[in-house]
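can u pls check wat happens w/ adenosine-5'-diphosphate
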Amino acid sequence: MAERTVTMRLLEVKGIQKRFGGVHALKGVDFDLSAGEVHVLLGENGAGKSTLMGVLSGAYVPDAGEIRVDDHTVHFARPRDAHAAGIVMIPQELDLVPGLDIAANLFLGNEITRAGVLSSAEMRRKAQGLLESAGVSLDAGLSIASLRMGERQLVAIAKALSANARILIMDEPTAALSAAEADHLFGVVKDLAARGVGIVYISHRLEEVPRIADRVTVMRDGAVVGTTTPHAPQAELVQLLVGRPFSDLFPSRAKAMGKPILRLEHAAFDPDIIRAGWQASVDISLTVHAGEIVGLAGLMGAGRTELFSALYGFGVSGRWRGVVEMHGQAAQLGTIHASRHAGVAYVTDDRRGTGLILNHTVAQNTLLSTLKRVTPFGLVSRALERREVLRALEDYDVRPRLPNAKVLNLSGGNQQKVVFAKELINRPALLLLDEPTRGVDVGAKAEIYQRLRGLADDGLGVLVASSELPELIGLCDKIVVMREGRTIHEFGPGPSEESIRKISEGEELAA
Ligand code: ADP
Ligand code: MG
């Protein structure tokens, strides 16, 4: 990586300590930030990231250590002091007032008045300008309540800029955003940096690092454990994050393999309606045995999600040709009803879109997919259902273990556990997983890997697509590569990233 040659140091902290009663949240932290830099602060839950940023933004007074802004020592007793020095933090829980419009939120506490009267028109006009300068195309008259989470995040950025932020601290800004919203946010953040704003970007998502960071600092357990380039190998970042080798995250491979569960031989799926951008399955040959975890690799658009959709009859209708067998018998897959009865379960790549209903409780979500458990009298048994849900929460270690908690309020890792519980409550034979660990803490990822291996050891067949090659390589017993709707290569356990990448891109492997 080319280092910036001329850097202007905006901020430097040294030896910051902070205790909360018995908790030593910061144990002597050093950190710095330059103008125009996006410095990602990475750490698992509880590492001390928010506390450090609380110190920088004047929310907490440190017990020890020094903060320097523009090479001058500063003391922040309250957020206003940090503001005056140009440091603004956008908290995880945005402090926007839903009942007011964007303009009113941007000027909250700094209302523009003319002869003691609020000048709404002027605020509206200035607000529009602020939105534009933050690269946001929203009408300043819209109420916050009408905005999606991604849009609210952008308003929060505009608000920070209205306070003339030179140093912007963002605490896990993508936690509640869709992939598309996150993409847009990354663009806005990069633009701000290009204009010289220094940005501290807090995240626990490894996959965000190469996309947004100029530099990354990892915290663990109240201390900085390393600073590195955003293109450091994932294994290095993981080791810093969790303090143990990357390879330790993965369970051992299949002990014994059972009979074939799913077998596709030159199978093709003809959708009833051909949609633009839909990569239909053209020629698929692969087998998933009981006890086996099979990985699906390929570039974006290779047709992995479409293959899952067609196998599960999800969001598409049509007909399979060629050999499609479950348990050695020709199977009619292609409608959700038929696929579920054949023992197929599917965890989509979009937890927030199709996997879970965020506003509903854990129990409601868990039971979404149940083939109703019916009593001898033909009634759905509530008591039976409740027992099943509690057992599932226990089995999947969902925290908190409250069937009536809203899924919305769970961490990403725990939401994903609910997705698993929901799909596995029917005891399927084959589990299709699309990007199962996206947006999940590394520690929670390791838990998911262990869980999948445990399920496979109990006889489940697993077919998993992931864009994270290290994950596929560490986890899978074999890896099938797809390209343009075709399976084009099969690797045994533990191929190199390089060889998978070459095949995915259509190169031949040297013999
Ligand atoms: P992160 O943002 O990296 O998830 P935090 O900075 O929120 O971590 O927390 C670091 C540690 O400090 C945790 O053990 C947390 O429980 C504790 N902690 C954070 N804020 C407080 C507080 N206001 N009172 C008591 N303990 C706190
Ligand atoms: Mg935090």
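DSSP finds 17 helices and 22 strands in the chain.
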